[in-house]
Write a structure and sequence with these properties.
The complex is a heterodimer of chains A (145) and B (38).
Chain A: E1 8-24, E2 27-34, E3 54-67, H1 68-75, H2 80-105, H3 108-123, H4 132-139
Antiparallel strand pairs in A: 1-2, 1-3
Chain B: H1 11-14, H2 18-24, E1 29-33
Classes of the chains: A alpha+beta (145), B alpha+beta (38).
Chain lengths: 145, 38
């Protein structure tokens, strides 16, 4: 949750997490999806101590919680893990940027297609659980425009 | 975790060598991803 101290970084091995932007109370829109390709709260690797966005489970599965102090120690050492963290942060930023563009420029059916494909990429299955109200949040359809 | 060196299913973690992954996963735990919950 926003303003909570980050004590662990979460690496999904199955299922997905959603990073939500909450511009106003009762308005939540997905800004990025996190699955087995990445990790939630990864800025903690570079020293961030407080979460600034809401993070929720979206597709059920499993994740590995890595202690934030261990993560910082490993990420501060030049090497493979540090390179992976930097690369993932860049990719994550790009995903959020394209989400902003998609939400501004595309219709709901186009946004739904993008979300389904991004989720499909991350869950290794042609079928996955999804609640109707969750999809509305993911697509920003619950917020007045 | 006892099986830290094994591939985990997460692509970032599995891109590491076994020694690096084992060190990173010291004290880690597996948790369920539950819909709608942090």
């Amino acid at each position: 949750m926003p303003d909570e101290v980050i004590d662990a970084v979460y690496f999904p091995t199955d299922g997905t997490l959603s990073l939500l932007a909450t511009p106003q109370l009762e308005q939540r829109v997905e800004a990025a999806t996190i699955g087995r390709e990445g990790a939630a709260d990864i800025p903690a690797a570079q020293g961030s101590r407080l979460a600034i966005h809401e993070l929720i489970g979206q597709v059920p599965g499993e994740m590995i919680a890595v202690d934030v102090d261990v993560l910082r120690r490993e990420a501060s050492t030049p090497g493979r893990f540090q390179d992976l963290v930097h690369g993932y942060i860049q990719a994550f930023f790009s995903q959020a940027a394209y989400s902003a563009a998609c939400n501004a420029l595309h219709q709901a059916d186009q946004r739904a297609a993008r979300w389904l494909l991004m989720t499909h990429d991350r869950v290794d299955a042609d079928q996955f659980e999804l609640r109707h109200e969750s999809l509305a949040v993911m697509l920003g359809c619950n917020a007045p425009r | 975790m006892a099986t830290a060196a094994r591939p985990t299913g997460n692509l970032l973690l599995d891109a590491l060598g076994e020694a690096d992954r084992t060190r990173l996963l010291q004290g880690s735990s597996r948790l369920p991803v539950e819909v709608g919950k942090r």
